[in-house]
Fold this protein.
Amino acid sequence: MENLSTQPEKKETRKKTLTTLFTSLAFMAVIGLIVAFDFERIKTFISHAGIWGLVISVFVYAALGMTFIPSEPLTLLIGAMFGPWTAMIVSWIGNTLAAIVEYYIGKRIGSAANFLEKKEKLPFGLGKLPIDSPLFLIGGRAIPLYGAKAISVVAGVYHVPLYRYIWTTAVTIFFGSLMFSFGGFGLAKLFK
């Protein structure tokens, strides 16, 4: 028989999870609409604002981290406008900040529905590794399309130590930022 004192705790946990989930979804929708309809305005602002445009870009990355909108177009844009090294640094800081936001969303959610069952099906033998393993955290972020966001949320849900999460995230984001920032710079040179 279930202890009556745990019922209010379960109810409170469920309420917290639902509140976090709905708040996150609403925020995702708002940010998604702003970026989708005002990307040209954002691009113009960043290019004309100089250093402040780059600072704002870091926060745009963090906001994009709460949506399913990829940040790669922003990295390509910054690479084309400011050069690859600047774009790499801004992208690295911004995407790491976005990953930390995703981690805390996962921490607030409190459970990842059936993740342990799905984990076993991950490629490259990742499913055999513990969730807090640096190899799992780095390898999982490298899975195209959903890997990075999924690993961030799952790391939060399973309370991976924050220091380990940040350094493994920073390593993978560094290489992604490097590729996309130099790619954006290369594309800009191609079209000039």
The two ends are 72 Å apart (CA to CA). Helices lie at 6-49, 51-64, 72-82, 84-109, 115-119, 134-141, 147-157, 162-190. The mean pLDDT is 76. Residues 6-190 form one domain.
